[in-house]
Amino acid sequence: xxxxxxxxxxxxxxxxxxxxxxxxxxxxxxxxxxxxxxxxxxxxxxxxxxxxxxxxxxxxxxxxxxxxxxxxxxxxxxxxxxxxxxxxxxxxxxxxxxxxxxxxxxxxxxxxxxxxxxxxxxxxxxxxxxxxxxxxxxxxxxxxxxxxxxxxxxxxxxxxxxxxxxxxxxxxxxxxxxxxxxxxxxxxxxxxxxxxxxxxxxxxxxxxxxxxxxxxxxxxxxxxxxxxxxxxxxxxxxxxxxxxxxxxxxxxxxxxxxxxxxxxxxxxxxxxxxxxxxxxxxxxxxxxxxxxxxxxxxxxxxxxxxxxxxxxxxxxx
Amino acid sequence: xxxxxxxxxxxxxxxxxxxxxxxxxxxxxxxxxxxxxxxxxxxxxxxxxxxxxxxxxxxxxxxxxxxxxxxxxxxxxxxxxxxxxxxxxxxxxxxxxxxxxxxxxxxxxxxxxxxxxxxxxxxxxxxxxxxxxxxxxxxxxxxxxxxxxxxxxxxxxxxxxxxxxxxxxxxxxxxxxxxxxxxxxxxxxxxxxxxxxxxxxxxxxxxxxxxxxxxxxxxxxxxxxxxxxxxxxxxxxxxxxxxxxxxxxxxxxxxxxxxxxxxxxxxxxxxxxxxxxxxxxxxxxxxxxxxxxxxxxxxxxxxxxxxxxxxxxxxxxxxxxxxxxxxxxxxxxxxx
Amino acid sequence: xxxxxxxxxxxxxxxxxxxxxxxxxxxxxxxxxxxxxxxxxxxxxxxxxxxxxxxxxxxxxxxxxxxxxxxxxxxxxxxxxxxxxxxxxxxxxxxxxxxxxxxxxxxxxxxxxxxxxxxxxxxxxxxxxxxxxxxxxxxxxxxxxxxxxxxxxxxxxxxxxxxxxxxxxxxxxxxxxxxxxxxxxxxxxxxxxxxxxxxxxxxxxxxxxxxxxxxxxxxxxxxxxxxxxxxxxxxxxxxxxxxxxxxxxxxxxxxxxxxxxxxxxxxxxx
Lengths: 317, 336, 270
Prior knowledge:
The structure holds three protein chains of three kinds.
Chain A: H1 2-19, H2 27-32, H3 35-72, H4 85-98, H5 106-125, E1 126-127, E2 130-131, H6 133-157, H7 160-170, H8 179-198, H9 200-208, H10 210-215, H11 220-242, H12 248-260, H13 264-288, H14 297-315
Antiparallel strand pairs in A: 1-2
Chain B: H1 13-17, H2 23-26, H3 37-56, H4 58-70, E1 90-92, H5 95-103, E2 110-113, H6 136-141, E3 146-150, H7 157-165, E4 170-173, H8 178-191, H9 195-216, E5 223-230, E6 233-235, H10 241-248, E7 252-253, H11 266-271, E8 276-281, H12 285-294, H13 302-305, E9 307-312, H14 313-316, H15 323-333
Parallel strand pairs in B: 1-2, 1-3, 3-4, 5-7, 5-8, 8-9
Antiparallel strand pairs in B: 5-6
Chain C: E1 6-17, E2 21-31, E3 35-40, H1 46-53, E4 61-66, E5 69-70, H2 76-82, E6 83-86, H3 98-103, H4 118-130, H5 146-159, E7 164-168, H6 176-193, E8 196-200, H7 204-210, E9 213-218, E10 221-226, H8 228-231, H9 234-241, E11 243-248, E12 256-262
Helix pairs in contact in C: 4-5, 5-6
């Protein structure tokens, strides 16, 4: 029943994502494909379809990474963005662009940046052999400051042409979705998601506390490394192709938690589905709201996310 | 450093009193982007926005970056041009203002120019005061008695307003339409002691403009967009001088109803009835535009099939005297 | 004294946890089936000992033997099936149903990504019934009182089917009723299941009354070890806690300890 509802939500959002955008898409024209109207409809669909899929992959990845980190760190504020993972990924991808590496390989560079950032943040936050949560958030702040400095450096070194394109990517955009990029993203998303979903039971133990997990037979060091790595994979891939999109990783797990509670075996997949649905809908709104201009997707997620988050906060103090 | 020249002492009423065709030169409030936007934006605005974004959220990037495009505050009003106070040592903070100074025959009065001032060639010999990050101290050390600044230029607002409040006369010049360009020529000419030459130049340019209008009158107006950047595709929208150029050259700007510099979606580009795409052409730009037309966001649908009209970038994108060359060449090249 | 084969044995154990709690070469033996109380000042290493045994903290040197086998050489899941840890207090950030918390005791038996089996559920509910917390099964554990929550954690140790229970200050902060309920459940289930209990406490009187064996720690080493009547003397208490106590011995019974005055010369916690 739950999964039916979640699947339905995603399906509705995907249909909306296909139906709404910069121009109107007539499904009957799309179906018949006849005449100029039909050709145009097919053209629009061919532009929109990879984009909707990309939005779903990115949204699902970010939400899943956020939900996993929240459980792992026993902190409802954990999020790839706050912990500096996104910043590291952005710096990695920007450096790769500066070095002239193919854009299709940039998820690799973004993943490397995200992993470096995660490792640095985790070791900064370590105190007396334990991950200290307050230090973790502070370390995320430091990492964000550092990586924004790296980005500034890359921007000033890059040609103004490259910098301009980088800028729009940074603001968060799904505009240049293509089947090739989807294929390049898929392995990262699938492997990262698989690791996290298979860690769900262990994450349940972490959600009560790291010592709790250790006492119940979990190799906590290995699990933490694995989850951090998988979350970095997902974040890196998402940032590489869609820029920095905030709030999805933070908000979606909270919303999902309000529905299914805190069992990660339900929460993680539900977060992934809800995140996918949310970003597909947000992307449709970003295309629709100010057509023919597109709003930055990050602005849309923040506009949806911030009030919702405030509401959640007020509801459960 | 004379306290009497403080920001408040600047006679705000004076420009308003003579609000005629020159008034636009002093406005700047709510006027769109600086003319050499295309060169400036990447280097300066982006990193600012990014810093804010990484610190506080991706949405802030958007806000910080959106800000320069849609909200603009002018530099503090500059002192009224009194005929007696002819400027002898002038610093120009924008390439189009440098060109105007040379065009009215006052190029020899320039003691400092912005890094982007590469026309006429004589401008290359003048000391540079920085490109985007113009240094107020460097400018002050040249002892200018007049600083020419884009009145709508977000990036030089800081230095220009610092100079103004420390007593250096700053003339904020707005050039968001061809009318404003003509007015700017007259005002700059008057301040540099070349009022007659400036009037003569403005009259000639206006005559050329009217000739173009006569030629295009009654002709079919192709539906066009003018892309200042291909990836993501960013066009000249309404209330920009490029919109003015495009429509006076005889085209209908498809995004003229949208003020500023809108980024266009691939869907719209693929399906909008675009007949002509005007692009600024330079050795640096061309590969980026070519890539966008072959595999990038301009490679699908209507925009791909549209006729491309290239205009030399430095002629087209700088609202100085040469933009009338761009007007003429564009009027000649547009398919009818 | 320690002739009985030890189930758990610490050998020259060194470990540190936090800024100022450390074990510095502890030797101790814990025979099967007994209730062993670990006493000592703050920072003497009591809680660290439990965390090393439950493999939360790795030892810096020395080793813990479980049935003569170094614990570090055993698979973690295997030791988790044999050793249950009941924390002093668990700060629950996320809400969790009490039943789900008890079901976590089944984690060392679970395989991969599987839902809880009916068998797990049955055992968990049975454990909750044994600890008188069955009625709390659907309540949010984060919203329970300290005493209720500690009994829920005890139920989890039962569900874990572990033969060794490690309890960190199980009675701290409990009102008399909850304290009684907890100790009652503990002793009843200990007897019924013949488990070995290692409990850390500050209550000398409680240890004297409840434990079969006392380990008195000072600065990370065992100061005294043995049945209460042997380990708890005026001298050992004075050395371990810097308090003067009156220890009344009864032939064949447990000693009664009454604290009288702080001893001069050493500040508490020094």
